[in-house]
Amino acid sequence: MNVSRFQKQRHLDVAPSPTPRQGLRKGVYVVPSFFTALNILAGFFSLMTTMSGFSLLERGLVAEATTRFDHAAIAIGLAFLCDTLDGRIARMTRSTTEIGIQLDSLADVVSFGMAPAMLAYAWGYGYALRDWGNARQLAWFLSFMYVICGGFRLARFNVQAVRPRPLAEGTPKVDKKSFVGLPIPVAGCLIAAIVHFNPTPIRYHNRFEILAIMMMVLIAFLSILMISTIRFTSFKSVGSGRRFNPRLVIGLIALAGLIFLFSQWVLLLLAVGYIVHGLLLRGLSPIFAALRNPAR
Prior knowledge:
Strand order of the largest sheet: 1-2
Mean pLDDT: 81
Order of helices and strands: HHHHHEHHEHH
Structural class: mainly alpha
Number of domains: 1
Radius of gyration: 24 Å
Number of helices: 9
Largest sheet: 2 strands, antiparallel
């Protein structure tokens, strides 16, 4: 009788060992964070390469600087790929966590905020307008405002994701099918696509002053779009169904092939097309609303 009690007590004291299924479940949470870490790595690499290219420009090594700027732009594109994969995997495996959301936002600030802002300054208007008195200070300020607006865009997204109901009167509701304001990854990828399209620094183009001013206007415009209330399609629902969609797979393979063969044109057209479609939807939404609810 005493032996039986001792065995029962010993059985209760020993913690049950985790099953293989539980260990696999815990490992699933690591996968999105792994891609988020790769996102940060790509953004950090872009920053370091941009600073190296700017240093080479100061020494008159234009060809080497051009290569560095191109590599910095490609790194931002790779960061976008990692950012897309970590979100998609987290939703598919239902492994989204609060710390994962915050870490993803910090990664986006580095990869699509600081890295593109530094790249636009070093490759574009910062170096091109260095002889224009206070223009270089204005260029520095615009890059800074781009980072601030991107950070505000991410903070607003996180707050809305945690508390999806309106926080105050007039606050837009969260819609899983659309983003409120231009997503910072798209803004950063547009800058990277422009640099990848022609990585030669603006200073060494004809009429570089006009190009530099146009780039500054673009940075200001992207900053405004990020903090605006214009809705942009999220595409989160694409491919989220349980059924296998062969047309989607074929489309992704075709897109990957086009990017591999014509990356300069395809990436630029994709970034510009996404932004234009959001602006068109905003401009045409009153017309669609009037057609759905005609006056009686």
